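User: Can you predict the 3D structure for this chain?
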Amino acid sequence: MELYVQKFGGSSMRDAERVRNVAKIVTKTWDQNKNVVVVVSAQGDTTDDLIAKANELNPKASKREMDVLLSTGEQISISLLAMTIEGMGYPVKSFTGWQAGFLTDSTHSNARIRNINKQRIENELQKRTIVIVAGFQGVNRYDDITTLGRGGSDTSAVALAAVLHADRCQIYTDVDGVYTADPRIVKNAVKLGAISYDEMLELASLGAQVLHNRSVEMAKRYNVDLEVLSSLEKKPGTIIKEDASVEKMIIRGVAKDANVARISLVEVPDQPGIAFKVFSILASKKINVDIILQSIGRDGTKDITFTVAKDHLEETVEVLNANRDKIGHKEVLTDDQVAKVSIVGAGMESNPGVASKMFEALYSANINIQMISTSEIKVSVLIDINDAKRAVVAIHDAFYNN
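Assistant: Here is the predicted structure, written as structure tokens:
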């Protein structure tokens, strides 16, 4: 018997009408003689509301206690969906992350899955029970509740699909697939029928909000058959698989990420090992660094500029200032009014001039580039945040309107 893992995000679970809609999708799949494991997120803005409640009482609450609080959002979702399906006459059981066997490391608010004890879920599937699992959460070895960070429910779903050897993992959302750009910004954005793991991973990492990058990374590692589709419209979605080459399509998408901040270390000693010191210190604090630019040394010093996620800016500056004597920099300059705009596509490897075309589009739109980063299948630029939407439109038009 086929097994489908179906994940529904917060917008798909927003209110009673949407929950009933999800219940219909799930039971229809069950009626097709398939086993179903459902992973759900917290309803609508529940997580944001819980964060606001916490900040009202203690803006500096520990990450451990925040995990205890935020995990309740998914618990509400699983019980409401289970009650709805139960009322329709189907066999169903809901499980929190720890009940479903999710064991994670102890990095509160951004935990990694270490193992899934699938026995309890498999026992229920053998009885043809619809299993509903709270996404985004698990427990560590001390039995403390942990959460997986932004987009964690996607990761929960893919991890379950991998360990259960599911035939397909369907990610239901409020869009009907993966587009060449955000259709809310670019009116002529094109929906992709298929995209490779590598291309989707780059798009997810670069700001496309359809899937979380960790979930795509896991899908690629375990060869999970992924599909992104709408929970509101009955139409085919986008398949994400190992090889999804399309002739004549040089780039697959344009992505925008506004959760970016630029940091410059001014007048760092121009000597071997300084870059290692800087980035090993940040790595020890689990701060991810993206675009890096190092100036040519003058008068025995150089500048090192890099980007981090905006929500890590304050922590990064504190860490750098605390290690001023070790690094030797004169000052730290920051700018959180920047955005990263990127193009992604496996076809770029065999098509020279792709970066030039992107830069020409930005020049024509009178948009200044601050930093550039490239790889075999992507080109990213850092620009002023106020130019980000215009940049996405200009770049998309350059590649898709010619």
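The first strand starts at residue 3 and ends at 8. The mean pLDDT is 92.
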